[in-house]
Fold this sequence. Notes:
This protein is an alpha/beta fold. It has three domains: 4-92, Arc Repressor Mutant, subunit A, CATH 1.10.10; 104-247, 3-Layer(aba) Sandwich (Rossmann fold), CATH 3.40.50.300; 253-314, no CATH class. 47% of the residues lie in helices and 15% in strands. It has 13 helices and nine strands. It has helices at residues 10-28, 38-41, 45-53, 76-92, 116-127, 144-152, 167-177, 193-205, 237-240, 253-267, 272-284, 289-298, 302-314; strands at 58-63, 68-72, 133-137, 157-161, 181-185, 207-212, 215-220, 224-229, 243-247. Helix 1 packs across helix 3 (45-53), helix 1 crosses helix 4 (76-92) and helix 10 (253-267) crosses helix 12. The protein is elongated. The relative contact order is 0.10.
Amino acid sequence: MVDWSFLNDPVLRKAVAKALEHVKRLREKGKPWQDFELVEIGVPYHVFRRLVYEYDLFEVTYHSNKHTFYKFKVPIEEVEARLNESDLAESTATVPEEAKVAKTPDDFWATVEGYEDIKEVFLASLKADSPVHILLVGDPATGKSVMLMEVERLAGSVFVTAGTATAVGLRDILVDRKPKYLIIDELDKIRDPKDLSVLLTLMETGRVIVTKHRERREEHLKTWVFAACNSTKNLPRELLDRFLIFHLKPYDRETLKRVIVKALTMREGVARELAEYIAEKVANSYGSVRDAVKLARLSKTREDADRFWNIIMKYRKID
Length: 319
């Protein structure tokens, strides 16, 4: 029996709507079958499988090593009626004003030292009706990472590193996860024009264009982009023009230690004694907050911290 509670999930509801439209087109063309493959409706398997196995809306009609076909288990007229009822209820519902803006944790920014004016701009961006994108520029130990780590805590955030994300990977993340806040570290490491095209289109129009098997479709997202980089030298002007840009100065060593200790104790659950030891070691080597977080996750003792930090420094590339 179908569990119609999937209608409360906008991602699942959209997937069903795509399947419904496809089956209706088959009917209009006089096709005798109503089975389809996921590639025909443009829905990721990890989303669709929930509709098959959790909500019992679809069944598998054929499966081989190369192909899997599905069909609705109930008449499509009933599915369409349920979707229409759900859309009507959503459009007439009264949304509280406080639900329209990002809800930040009570201790938001607690790990960030200084930059009170930039924090204010961040908060205004999060409350804006339309996305305002922000780019933080500066050397390691300027506070970029710790600010992005705070934004990562918000519901709907997705973190990527530009140096490791491919164009297909970034596009898939956007389409599959539909982030409200896309957080990009190492933005200056974007090299592939396809990567750049995906990001530019998202920031300018909110669209993500997907072309597969000669079919072109668009996803419309409302996504804020918060990014960081060491330098804007290699970034194209058209990308920079889409950001509010803040150039940060390095923390002095004592301030950096305080930031690291806060980040490790408040966000990573590290004992204060070990956090202070790691902060001393990383700050004295001109490391960053993210360096300290990685080291803390590897280390349970001071001896661990010494050993792993020595290895890290041994193979660190100096640009």
